[in-house]
Design goal:
The complex is a heterodimer of chains A (498) and B (475). Chain A has 498 residues and is mainly alpha-helical. Chain A has a two-stranded antiparallel ribbon with strand order 1-2. In chain A, helix 5 packs parallel to helix 11, helix 6 runs antiparallel to helix 7 and helix 17 crosses helix 20. Helix content of chain A is 76%, strand content 1%. Chain A has one domain. Chain B has one domain. In chain B, a hairpin with a 4-residue loop joins strand 1 and strand 2. In chain B, helix 13 packs antiparallel against helix 18. Chain B starts with a helix and ends with a helix. The chains are: A mainly alpha (498), B mainly alpha (475). At the A-B interface, helix 17, helix 18 and helix 20 of A face helix 5, helix 6 and helix 7 of B.
């Protein structure tokens, strides 16, 4: 049976848009039930398996050749749960969530791991809904569900610092929620109650430009907060540093990819309206500021997690570069999705490696200098982290290159060459801090302090396994090399915006 | 098929060397040597196939990439094959993780091959950046005292240049609507060409390196292990000159016409500055590093003329510099291995104690100063002749550089090879047999090209004529 025939055979199953989300949520519940019987490890494993199944299912859906006139798209309550673009990025959301749980969440507190895994699964399901939202109300509800999961994940470390970071994140997040509610109220209210994306475009065009622009600006602010872009970035480094690395992998990868994707799909419709042209300008300025600030601030960090947090601000900037040219056409939207996907896989891999390091090296204080000599003790994980960091830098042969290339290509086509150059120089700067981690791991001798207490076999709480890191790195490399051999159409097929 | 093999064979060899490295120290060396030799044979086969074809161009493509071998890339592909073997031999005695070392070396060779063979811009850029990764680890993992700093500096410096180049490539691809390298079918707006040329060219000028952008080079060369220095000077710098001729100039011929005087001036500045700096060095390896700046100045000068004579001179000078600098770094590396110092002042009289090494070093210095009959002479002479046609009497400044070239090379010979033998080296052993063989191969190449520069010129001629004709249409 040929591949096409298999896909045709599976079409009825793959067309059920809510199936991956249902599997993820069911796995979350099953994981919690297992936890009730004091089988925490099993619980995490069940959730991971569920997320893996959801990722595979979404991936297969993304590969499904589209029937004529988009017969796949099923609209229920304003949610479009299948279709090329959405399923492709949803697969990445589930996959990165799977990576973050796959290692057993060993850096989290014992007793809370199954709960954290369940939260991750529910958050991933919310991410899928967010990507499929075709209605601002659905967008808002899924975004808030994702935010609630994120607050809990940040707090899950249980330390005082984590509580403080979570509380700060929550307060700031509430303000962003308020802005989003106001923006949606303005747009929906002035549009006489229409909230679907398709109708919004037409009603907005008829609105007084000032009013619709106000709504647009409020939404832009909310977007900037959710993706952690420049003026609303202050929660990012704290959250990424204090959350357990596995949970941080979910926050930085799945949640961010879903937020970027969801907002792109909204903005691509709104910004075709003339009055929103200046909102596009605002997004491009936010993008430039995020790239500059994130990269420069990351240079000064000494903690790996915090450095990744600041670099995530810069990465959000790159995504916004794509968002502000997305109205140009379907290719530009695909470029944003591709970038979000490549960043998510890279970031998830990086945090999963950090989790592995944290579980295997209890003395490690999380600093960049502290990873000295890890390359000899944990070669596989060190290579995986290097690949992830190179991918986030945008070096060719990793998938991150394609993400950045298409975003910048779209921006250049949109006439934003200044933004392209800022972005590219920003990527060059980014190796200044990513490279320091690599240098420390591979070229520096470990300090003697680490050697003394290193062998501590008995009481290590949970020893994370290395395979999620290796899996993530392998995906980064394979998807980075494949387009060179089989052509770029492969990349577009997965994220085609139709 | 041969062209794909040129990229895949060293990659496969790298994998095997890495696996073999986990079993013992000897196997990865053998794997490295065999792969490098196979690569050299492949390069020669590809050349033969190219010469046998009717239009002297060899093409290969898959759905995602296209590879081209023509007169412009063939000499550099051959050079890469040869230098690859020399680099493996030069790192024969490395005892620290030899498997990984040889794997990186072979991966580096594959990446450089990709750059020289790339037929489309994306692949060209992919190879261009891919070169950085193995080089970064080679410098950082096996370099000398200051390797941590040098590795990151090398990477960042050249990476900044290449991302600007990427911006230029994006603009070019966007305008031309094709990623295939070649004279653009849709001409690029003359108003954008001046900045487009500099945008694309900056990445290459950093790589060459051209005078004010050269500061990464001395550090990288000095700190890199011997094999790394050989690859860096012998092959990697050529990517810059090749990129200018292959990509930057064809895509922005008007921009190049406007920039040519500046380029020429930078080339001449590099010749004089490199020679002055080389003369001032107290570290033998640093001296050789700065001599590279001077030699590559001739390449830039030749390219800046925009004539077929200048292009041919640049190709000749690049191949020659590849051989000579590889020989010099091989000798300096061999000396450092036995003395653990590169300080010129501590040497003296080595000609008497280590006659083979001394003889080879004198030969290399003579080749480097451009003695007629050796490879340095024809390329640099042609560059000056072409430069005279394009820039007039300004070219007489180059005479100062040529003179200084003789000064620093001969003074290095006097201070290291001649004079009284320092007490501490009275028991110094001579250069090892493997290094001697590698050096002899390089010497052979230097003599052949010096006596019969025609070999290279006839090879490059069709491609160069084609490129320059396209240029004439634009300016």
């Amino acid at each position: 049976m040929s591949f096409d025939q298999i896909m045709e055979f599976l079409r009825p199953v793959l067309s059920i848009g809510w199936l991956p989300a249902a599997i993820a949520c069911a796995a979350a519940v099953a994981g919690l039930v297992a936890d009730m019987f004091a089988a925490e490890k099993t619980g995490v494993a069940i959730v991971s398996a569920g997320l893996a199944a959801a990722a595979l299912l979404s991936f297969a859906t993304a590969l499904l050749p589209m029937g004529p006139a988009g017969t796949l798209i099923a609209t229920t309550f304003g949610v479009v749960l299948t279709g090329g673009t959405f399923a492709g990025l949803a697969a990445v959301v589930y996959f990165t969530a799977f990576l973050s749980c796959g290692g057993g969440l060993s850096s989290g507190r014992a007793g809370s791991r199954a709960a954290v895994a369940a939260l991750v699964a529910i958050g991933a399901a919310a991410g899928q809904v967010l990507l499929g939202a075709a209605d601002v109300i659905i967008l808002f509800v899924s975004l808030e569900l994702l935010a609630l999961v994120a607050y809990a994940l940040v707090a899950s470390a249980g330390s005082d610092r984590a509580d403080e970071a979570a509380a700060r994140y929550f307060v700031q997040g509430s303000v962003a929620t308020g802005l989003a509610v106001l923006g949606i109220a303005v747009i929906v209210g002035l549009g006489a109650g229409t909230s679907g994306y398709v109708d919004l475009g037409t009603t907005l065009a008829a609105m007084p430009p000032g009013a619709s622009l106000l709504g647009g600006m409020l939404l832009v602010s909310a977007l900037a907060f959710k993706v952690g872009a420049f003026p609303f970035h202050s929660w990012v480094p704290d959250a990424y540093e204090t959350a357990p690395a596995g949970a941080a992998a979910f926050l930085s990868a799945s949640a961010k990819a879903a937020a970027i994707g969801g907002f792109t799909l909204l903005f691509v419709r709104l910004m075709t309206v003339q009055a929103f042209a200046s909102a596009g300008l605002a997004v491009s300025i936010i993008a430039a500021a995020s790239i500059i600030f994130g990269n420069l601030a990351a240079l000064r960090q000494t903690s790996v997690g915090r450095m990744l947090g600041y670099s995530a601000i810069a990465q959000a900037g790159y995504a916004l570069v794509g968002v502000c040219v997305s109205p140009l056409g379907g290719d530009s939207v695909s470029a944003v999705f591709l970038f979000a996907a490549t960043y998510a896989v890279g970031a998830a891999t990086a945090f999963v490696v950090l989790e592995y390091f944290a579980s295997r090296e209890p003395q490690w204080d999380g600093s960049i200098a502290g990873v000295a000599g890890f390359a000899t003790r944990h070669p596989a994980a060190s290579v995986a982290l290097t690949i992830a960091l190179l991918s986030m830098t945008g070096i060719p042969l990793t998938v991150g290159f394609w993400g950045k290339f298409f975003v910048f290509y779209g921006a250049a086509q949109g006439g934003l060459l200044w933004l392209v150059i800022i972005g590219l120089v920003g990527s060059a700067i980014s190796f200044g801090y990513y490279g320091r981690v690599v240098r420390s791991m591979f070229f520096d001798a470990p300090s003697s302090r680490d050697e003394v207490g290193a062998p501590q076999v008995g009481d290590a709480p949970a020893r994370g396994s290395v395979w999620p890191s290796v899996l993530g790195a392998a995906v980064v490399i394979i998807t980075g090399v494949a387009p060179l051999i089989w052509g770029l159409s492969l990349v577009y097929a997965l994220f085609a915006f139709r | 098929m041969t062209l794909f093999a040129l990229i895949i064979v060293p990659l496969a060899g790298a994998l095997v060397a890495w696996i073999a490295g986990r079993r013992g120290h000897v196997k990865p060396r053998l794997v490295g040597l065999l792969t490098a030799l196979a690569e050299g044979v492949l390069a020669a086969t590809a050349l033969a196939q190219m010469l046998a074809s009717s239009d002297q161009v060899l093409l290969a493509s898959t759905r995602g990439m296209q590879l081209v071998l023509d007169g412009l890339s063939a000499p550099l592909v051959l050079l890469t094959g040869l230098i690859g073997v020399v680099a493996v031999i030069a790192s024969w005695r490395i005892a620290d993780r030899p498997g990984v070392h040889h794997a990186l070396l072979l991966a580096l060779e594959a990446a450089v091959m990709t750059v020289f063979l790339a037929g489309d811009l994306i692949l060209f850029y992919v190879g261009w950046e891919a070169v950085l990764i193995p080089m970064f680890f080679l410098i950082g993992g096996w370099g000398h005292e200051n390797r941590r700093h040098a590795a990151l500096k090398f990477f960042l410096y050249t990476f900044v240049g290449s991302v600007l180049m990427l911006a230029g490539i994006i603009v070019a691809v966007m305008t031309v609507k094709s990623t295939l390298i070649g004279a653009p079918s849709i001409p690029i707006d003359p108003a954008t060409q001046p900045w487009l040329f500099w945008l694309i060219g900056i990445g290459m000028l950093v790589k060459v390196p051209v005078f004010p952008l050269h500061t990464w080079l001395p550090d990288a060369h000095v700190e890199a292990p011997t094999a790394g220095s050989i690859m860096l000077a012998g092959v990697l710098l050529k990517m810059g000159g090749y990129g200018l001729m292959r990509v930057a100039i064809p895509y922005a011929p008007d921009g190049f016409a406007a920039a040519a005087p500046v380029l020429g001036a930078l080339g001449m500045a590099g010749i004089i500055y490199g020679a002055l700096m080389a003369f001032a060095q107290t570290d033998l390896k640093r001296l050789v590093a700065y001599s590279s700046v001077a030699h590559m100045g001739f390449v830039v000068l030749g390219i800046a003329t925009g004539t077929s004579l200048g292009y041919a001179a640049a190709m000749l000078a690049m191949v020659s510099h590849g051989l000579v600098s590889a020989l010099l770094f091989l000798l300096v590396g061999s000396l450092y291995e036995r003395t653990h110092t590169r300080e010129i002042a501590r040497f003296g009289g080595l000609g008497a104690r280590t006659p083979r090494w001394g003889g080879l070093f004198v030969f290399a210095a003579l080749a480097s100063l451009g003695l007629p009959g050796l490879s340095g002479f024809p390329g640099e002479l042609l560059a000056v002749i072409a430069g005279f046609g394009a820039f007039g009497w300004w070219i007489s400044l180059v005479a100062i550089g040529a003179l200084l070239g003789a000064v620093y090379n001969l003074s290095a010979v006097r201070r290291v090879v001649h004079g009284g033998l320092a007490e501490e080296w009275s028991a110094l052993s001579d250069i090892s047999r493997g290094d001697t063989i590698a050096a002899a191969v390089l010497c052979g190449g230097i003599v052949v090209i010096g006596v019969a520069p025609d070999l290279i010129l006839r090879l490059t001629d069709p491609a160069v004529t084609l490129l320059v004709r396209a240029l004439g249409g634009g300016s």
